[in-house]
Amino acid sequence: MKTRITELFGIEHPIIQGGMHHVGFAEMAAGVSNAGGLGIITGLTQRTPKDLANEIARCKDMTDKPIGVNLTFLPGFADPDYPGYIEAIIAHDVKIVETAGRSPEQYMPMLKDAGIKVIHKCTSVRHSLKAEKIGCDAVSVDGFECGGHPGEDDIPNMILLPRAAEELSIPFVASGGIGNAKQLVAALALGADGVNMGTRFIATKEAPVHQNVKDALVGASELDTTLIMRPLRNTERVLKNDAVNRILEKEKELGADIKINDIMDEVAGVYPKIMSDGDMDSGAWSCGMVAGLIHDVPSCQDLISGMMKEADEIISKRLKAFAA
Ligand SMILES: Cc1cc2nc3c(=O)[nH]c(=O)nc-3n(C[C@H](O)[C@H](O)[C@H](O)COP(=O)(O)O)c2cc1C
Q: Does the pLDDT at position 193 exceed 80?
C-alpha cells in the first residue's frame, strides 16, 4: 500500500511502532522494520548517548530497513543530554526521528541540517499545526484512547483524526487505540496516511519484555485501563493494578495538593521491574484501551502482513460493495 507516509519514510506498509520506554529496544524496532513497518528505538531508555549509539548499531545488525529513534521531551525529573542523543542519531545515520512531549522546535535546525525526517506526536489539532509550522515532516495524532500520555483535551480519534485532516497539509498517522486491519482502514478513511501502534506491538513475539506483560495484555479488556496523574496535568493511561490503585487513592485523598513526590514509589524507575522482571504490580505502566482487542501474541511479520492482507480485503470487497 502506498501512502504519503510510506513514501516519506521509504517503508512498505503504513504502520509505525511508536517509541515505548523499556520496550523499544533493538529487537522490537528490527522486528517491525523487517516486517515492512517502521520500527522505532526509544532514545531515553538508553541511559547515555553512547548507549543509544550501541543500541542503534545492534539494531542495524538485525535489519537493513529504515528505523527511527524516539526522543521524548517530557516535563522530566531530570533534563537528559538531548543534543548528545541527537549527535548519536546523526553519527549512526538514522534518518527518522519521532519526537514527543514538548515541541521539538529548539532541536529542529540540528535535525533538519542532518537530513532527518521528523514526525512529532501530538494530542491536539493546535499542537499538530504548530508542528507543521516549525517544519516537522509528519505528525502522529494521538487520541484519548492511547496508551501513555493522551494530553488533557480528551478528544477521541473519531473526532481528532478528521479534525486533523481538516487543518493539516503535512501527512499524519492515526495513533491510539489501533491494533487491527478494520481500524487501519477506518484511520485511512478518516484522513490519516497510516497508523502508529504502541500497546499492540508489546504483545508480539519480538517484543523484548517479560511474558507476564504479554499475558496481561491478552487477558485485559477495554475496561482495564485508567487515567492517572490528571491533577498533575501529566495524564497517563495505564493498566489497572495495585500500584495504580494506590495512586488513585492518593489522588483522591490529596486532591489538587498532590505533588509528583507523593507518587514517586509508583511511577519512578518502575519500567525495568515490569518489563524485564515481569513484576506486574510494582508500578504504573502505559497501556491503551486497545488491550481489549489483543487476543494473541503473533510475530511482527504475521501481525503486519495479516493486517495488510485484511485491510486490502476490506477495501476491495466490503467497502467496494457499498460503493455500488
Ligand atoms: C508501555 C508504553 C510505553 C510508552 N513509552 C513512550 C515513550 O517513552 N515515549 C513516547 O513518545 N511514547 C511512549 N508511548 C506511547 C506510544 O509511542 C504510542 O504513542 C501509544 O502507545 C499509542 O497508543 P496505543 O498504545 O493505543 O497504540 C508508550 C506507550 C506504551 C504502551
A: yes
pLDDT reported for residue 306: 98
Atom of ligand 1 nearest to the CA of 177: 26
195-228: per-residue pLDDT in tens?
999 999 999 999 999 999 999 999 999 999 999 9
Nearest-atom index, ligand 1, CA of 175:
22
What are the structural domains, with CATH classification, of the chain?
A: 4-208 (3.20.20.70), 211-289 (no CATH)
Residue nearest to atom 4 of ligand 1 (CA): 20
Instruction: Using most ligand atoms within 8 A of CB, pick from 15, 157, 161, 199 the residue to mutate for ligand 1.
Output: 199
| Global pTM value | 0.98
What's the gap in Å between 319 CA and the centre of ligand 1? 31
The answer, yes or no, to whether any atom of ligand 1 lies below 6 A from the CB of 236, is: no
Average pLDDT value for residue range 106-123: 98
Distance CA 292, CA 283 (A): 21
Distance 320 CA to ligand 1 centre (A): 34
Distance from residue 147's CA to the centre of ligand 1 (Å): 6
